Amino acid sequence: MVNKKETGKKSRGEKRGILGYLAGVKEEFGKVVWPTKDELSSSTLVVFAVCAFFALGFWLVDTGFLALLRKVLGITLS
Length: 78
Description:
Layout: H1 4-7, H2 17-31, H3 37-73
């Protein structure tokens, strides 16, 4: 393995300062595998469906607890 001190060269990610940071960011963005339009659309649909499912579930639980409180304690919440 070559010692970095011997070569005197640094890779883009090893430069110091803000320019080195930005060079590293650019290098990492090149490694990203971006989703296709179809993958993005289907993932977005799944996220919306799961959010709607949980919202409905929380609403049902909340309504059930409210009905239970009204029945047990005889209170009304406006």
